[in-house]
Design goal:
249 residues, mainly alpha, 2 strands
């Protein structure tokens, strides 16, 4: 028979191996890195005047504009010479563009142009002013125009699904232009995404993709607006007749 010491000496490596394995498994199954949590907009009495479609459009507009402001900041960080054409600081120009978009004001460098005409000018190789501000303002203006010129929606407001769909395609075209068009010196209009031997940065494409996705989803949802209203009406009728609690005494 093997001695107790011999048995223990043979078991100890196994125990050590099992301990290491359990530690590794614990590390693999631990909670993932915290990437934040979903946060809804604060409640407001204005919601009483909004249908589900109005509310969805309002939230999508808010998020799309925030995506554009984020892209503006990122573009300025990669193209600092641009904001210096417009103001004393990057933050100041971002604030001015935000106010111009949300107050439906004009942007002087775009020569009074709006919507796709403003986008075309901002993405012209010969454009000399602050291209970042002009491009973000023009893109935001195009999206707002596709929503009937509004950034908040109520029961009296209507949306055209085709215009929303067209806005999504305009975003895709604009991203292609940023990637492929060159100025007179042969340089990209603006530095954005970059893929090379040492770096792979596609954060701009991802953020633009979020805007396209929201616009496409809203366009499809709007096409079903009247159908969903009819279905909800029938569901409410059926619920009134068949989904009531029964007396128990």
């Amino acid at each position: 028979m093997r001695s107790t010491a011999a048995v223990c000496s043979s078991v100890l490596p196994i125990v050590a191996l099992m301990t290491a394995l359990m530690a590794a498994l614990s590390a693999c199954t631990s909670a993932p890195t915290n990437h934040g949590e979903v946060k809804g907009a604060p409640a407001s009495s204005r919601e009483m005047g909004q249908s589900d479609t109005n509310r969805m459009a309002t939230l999508a507009m808010r998020d799309n504009l925030e995506s554009l402001y984020l892209l503006m900041d990122k573009l300025y960080r990669r193209n600092p010479a641009e904001w210096k054409k417009s103001g004393a600081s990057r933050e100041e120009v971002v604030k001015r563009v935000r106010e111009a978009v949300e107050k439906r004001e004009t942007w002087a460098d775009l020569q009074g142009k709006h919507d796709i005409a403003a986008m075309s000018l901002a993405l012209s190789p010969d454009f000399k002013a602050d291209r970042v501000a002009a491009f973000i303002y023009a893109t935001a203006d195009m999206i707002v125009t596709a929503h009937g010129g509004k950034i908040e929606f109520f029961l009296i407001d209507g949306l055209d699904a085709q215009y929303l769909y067209n806005a999504a395609r305009n975003i895709e075209i604009a991203v292609w232009m940023l990637t492929n068009r060159r100025n007179s010196a042969g340089q990209p209009l603006l530095l954005s995404d970059e893929i090379n031997a040492t770096e792979r940065n596609l954060s701009f494409e991802r953020e633009f993709g979020k805007i396209v996705g929201r616009l496409d989803l809203l366009a499809e949802f709007v096409t079903e607006k009247y159908r969903r209203a009819g279905i909800s009406y029938v569901q409410n009728l059926l619920g009134g007749s068949f989904l009531q609690f029964l007396p128990v005494r």
